[in-house]
Amino acid sequence: MPEENYYRLLKETFGNKENVVTELINLEAILHLPKGTEHFISDVHGEYEAFDHVLRNGSGSVKEKIAECFNEKDVDIDDLAALIYYPEEKIQLEKDSRTPAELKKWYVQKIQLLITVVNYASRKYTRSKVHKALPSRFSYIIEELLTEKQQETDKQAYIQAIIDNVIQLNQAAPLISALCYVIQRFVVDHLHVVGDIYDRGPAPDLIMERLIHYHSVDIQWGNHDIIWLASMAGSPLALINVLRICARYGNLAIIEDRYGINLRPLVEYAYKYYPKLDKFSPKLDDETNFSAAEKDSLNKIQQATAILQFKLEGQLIKRRPEFLMNERNMLDLIDYTKETIELNGKTYSLADFTAPTIDPANPCALTYEEEQLLEKLLRSFQTSEPLKRHMDFLMERGSMYLCYNGNLLLHGCIPLHQNGDFKSLRVGQTHYSGKSLLDFFEEQIRYSYNHPDISADFATDLLWYLWTGECSSLFGKKVMATFERYYVEDKQTHHEEKNAYYRLRNQEAICQEILKDFNLPLTGHIVNGHTPVKANKGENPIKANGRMLVIDGGFAKSYQKETGLAGYTLLSNSYGLQLVAHQPFSSVKESIEQRNDILSTKRLVERVESRTTVSETNIGKKLNQEKKALETLYENYDFY
């Protein structure tokens, strides 16, 4: 748009010169406010209840705000925190245990306490932002209660009349709930999800719904997220992999019940060709939730999808020689007569290798039955309305990385050589590495997602490469040994060599080179997920003199034995950075009754000398641009 037209439109928007002045004053004031609290979370892997709890308590931020408001001798901080986290459940508990008179007194007390917390938590926001955040149903009441200082005796009757009427009209419980959610909203200004919402846990769909309705969020895609996106983008290979993982962890109900995808054709196919094998027993957190028949079904589906995956992967490897993955075309490496496989020049016997639909003369070829099956499954996947809505949101709010307030957020790694140089991927005559590699990946992801009717183009195949390729920033290993773990008993073949990044990220100089490549200050931080931090073995999530922060502490229950924790989160507020470690989440009931916050420790990562203001943030940069445009308009108002 020509500059002149832009300023004319801007002039029309504000109507008169006085409004421009008002907005300039407003923007300048906002720039001097303390920055809002950022909340970083990663690798939640479908563990909705623990994820939801951490959002509700703001990784301990809510309780900190309460403690700053009140003296512990005067207010039961743990009890008030439990109410703010789970208002409906806590209110019901009080209703069940109190007389009507006691309950009325409780209502009055809690409304007054909550108003104090809301007032305190909203101090760093403008009145306009506070107003927009209030639920319309109680907006007037809350604003009145916030405006009037309760300690003023001449206003006590007015305030008490409001509260008494709320109780008389049976609106106390919903008002208290509204106040609690407003506090949660004000305590955390923005949420970063640094990858891996999907797989392993039972409820990624609930996490997605929570994020869709969250007030401010961005997502950095993880390798498990990308495989779901690839399925919606039209990759049958990614789709089969998603189904295999869901079968492995007993989560096919996500596909069938919540996303409404018909898996009956797959079940019939699996039962037709595959016997039950112990090595394909699903990994279940609670086996009592599954019948013997259901376990057998998961077992056989996992086998069927594994063989289909290896067939489709072989086809992709053949049509994409630029991926340099020939040694991973597993089905072509098998001697079907001897039932052996040659890996890296060594021959291994195959154990329980059952593949009745493989033609040894053309092992990667699909049968007609398999082609029809994949077509049905892909159609069902792509036409699932709730899944499409979730994947669209993942695309809308997601990216390969994010540069935000001087920090680099990415799920996996920046592929590096052993000497610390950026490792490159060659496509045609172009080499991509570092930032350019991640930009290229994102460009191809978006192209593939926007062309879901194409299944075997380069962009869609690259999404699979992101799952398992050596130069993938989301995978970060040399090979993915899925085949070996299933069929080769020698555990040396199961080893997956990590990219040099995971060793070199302990060095501050390496981290600063990466920050430099992304045009970020050398004092910034890299926030990583993807690799569980083994705290029980002494691993430190704070690396490279604080330049590297790893926040995957193992939300997935399957990882908690090796990590010793149930996840790390990170908080960034106007005072600095705090890393928070979490213990395993038990239940909402226990959180309320025992007032258990699941926080174990908070560690100060960095404290700034003076409070960070909005002017120093990404939002501040945008506001300064708006301010500059308005100053130009003001100075040349009559011209436009």
In words, what does this structure look like?
With 640 residues, the chain is α/β, with parallel strands linked by helices. 49% of the residues lie in helices and 11% in strands. It is built from 27 helices and 17 strands. It has a seven-stranded mixed beta sheet. Strands 8-9-12-14-13 form a five-stranded mixed beta sheet. Helix 2 (17-31) packs antiparallel against helix 27 (618-635), helix 4 (61-69) crosses helix 5 and helix 13 (223-232) packs across helix 14. It is globular, with a radius of gyration of 28 Å. The model has no long low-confidence stretch (mean pLDDT 92).
What's the short version?
The protein is α/β, with parallel strands linked by helices.
Furnish the topology, listing elements before pairings:
Layout: H1 3-14, H2 17-31, E1 38-41, H3 48-57, H4 61-69, H5 77-85, H6 87-97, H7 100-121, H8 127-133, H9 139-147, H10 153-168, H11 172-187, E2 190-193, H12 204-212, E3 217-220, H13 223-232, H14 236-248, H15 252-258, H16 264-273, H17 292-319, E4 334-335, E5 340-343, E6 346-349, H18 368-382, H19 385-397, E7 398-399, E8 401-404, E9 407-410, E10 425-427, E11 430-432, H20 434-449, H21 458-468, H22 482-487, H23 501-504, H24 508-517, E12 526-528, E13 542-543, E14 548-550, H25 560-563, E15 568-573, E16 576-582, H26 588-593, E17 599-607, H27 618-635
Helix pairs in contact: 2-27, 4-5, 5-6, 7-11, 12-19, 13-14, 13-19, 13-21, 14-17, 16-17, 20-21
